[in-house]
Write a structure and sequence with these properties.
- The structure is a single chain.
- By secondary structure, the protein is an alpha/beta fold.
- The chain contains nine helices and 14 strands.
- It has an eight-stranded parallel sheet with strand order 11-6-5-4-1-2-3-14, with helices on both faces.
- Helix 3 packs parallel to helix 4 and helix 7 packs across helix 9.
- The chain is globular.
- It starts with a strand and ends with a strand.
């Protein structure tokens, strides 16, 4: 199968590329690392993606590039976008609109231009943020959406575009990811910040009172669900929760992390983030029914995995790769 992965230099996207290659698929990896929230990290990951056998890399900004090369595939895993509730306020609002809504609109429109029999299926990454804060039960896909930040609003609009495209004959699937963590997590994300602070002997920066809870979902489980969505025939335009069914409080998660690290953490309180959900809580019943998917990694195991990755980065023998662009120029195509 030929699969296009947008956001291939990102946290989830790079893992999806790895898994697709390991499964023997032909992969076109697409990203614009310079637009990442952490460009140096993205360029390192991009170099590693480019070095994988069987991967062709395409550096392209989806908001302006010619996207025709992306449509010559069986499936497009559209994982690119502008993440972060916190970063979407103020000047970040326009970036979320551009990199999430405009980019998705252009990609879906280009895929729809293909002859009907040659149109790829498009698996679109969405977010638990579309629900707002969960109430007294886990969120199900049919629940009303209550976006509370510009980022969440942009994801609701991304979903609307995908559903409209499905009504017009393009096969689409929406995956609502819940609080993904694990190796390669972005530096601005909670467990990355907590782990690095703890390893440095610094206080852990916690937004708000630490009482918020999340359906923390390990990236390996997210990748499994994503690959099944790529491979399976699902009802077009459907949304599917990809999240652990047991929410865990931030304080409890810090306790687990501290136990793995063998430290007694000191907490530094920071102002709460506007629009940040008090609780995310996934009902993954639809994913189990349609994809045969159930999360397999519990939080203690997953945190140990992420911490091992952080420690490996600090060992001299596993020094960080150069932050330059990929050297594999003969396999890189530039557009836009």
């Amino acid at each position: 199968m030929r699969v296009v992965v947008t956001g291939a230099a990102g946290f989830i996207g790079s893992h999806v590329v790895d898994a697709l290659c390991s499964a023997g698929h032909e992969v076109l990896a697409v990203d614009a690392p310079g637009r990442s929230l952490a460009p140096e990290v993205a360029w390192r990951t991009w170099a590693a993606v480019a070095a994988r056998p069987g991967v062709t890399v395409l550096e392209a900004d989806l908001a302006v590039a010619d996207l025709a090369p992306l449509t010559r595939a069986d499936t497009v895993a559209h994982l690119a976008g502008r993440p972060s509730v916190r970063g979407s306020w103020g000047a970040g609002r326009a970036a979320a609109e551009r990199d999430n809504v405009l980019a998705t609109h252009r990609l879906l429109a280009e895929c729809a231009r293909r002859p009907a029999r040659r149109r790829p299926k498009v698996v679109v990454a969405s977010s638990s943020s579309v629900y707002g804060s969960a109430g007294d039960r886990p969120n199900r896909e049919g629940d009303p959406l209550h976006p509370a930040s510009p980022y969440a609003v942009s994801k609701v609009e991304v979903e609307r575009l995908a559903v409209d495209a499905a009504r017009n004959g393009l096969r689409t699937v929406l995956l609502r990811y819940f609080s993904v963590y694990g190796p390669r997590q972005r530096p601005d994300m909670a467990f990355h910040r907590f782990t690095e602070a703890a390893l440095d002997g610094r206080p852990l920066p916690v937004f708000g009172d630490g009482r918020r809870s999340r359906s923390f979902t390990h990236v390996a489980d997210v990748v499994t669900a994503t690959l099944r969505a790529v491979a399976e025939e699902l009802p077009s335009g459907i949304a599917v929760n990809v999240g652990h069914p047991e929410p865990v409080g931030v304080h409890e998660a810090i306790g687990l992390l501290a136990g793995v690290l063998g430290v007694r953490p000191e907490i530094r309180r920071e102002a709460p983030v506007a629009g940040d959900a008090a609780r995310t809580w996934a009902d993954p019943a639809r994913a189990h029914r349609l994809l045969g998917w159930t999360p397999a990694v519990d939080l203690a195991e997953g945190l140990a995995d992420q911490i091992a990755w952080h420690r490996a980065l600090r060992r001299p023998e596993t020094s960080r790769p150069e932050t330059s662009r990929p050297d594999a120029r003969e396999r890189e195509v530039r557009v836009g």
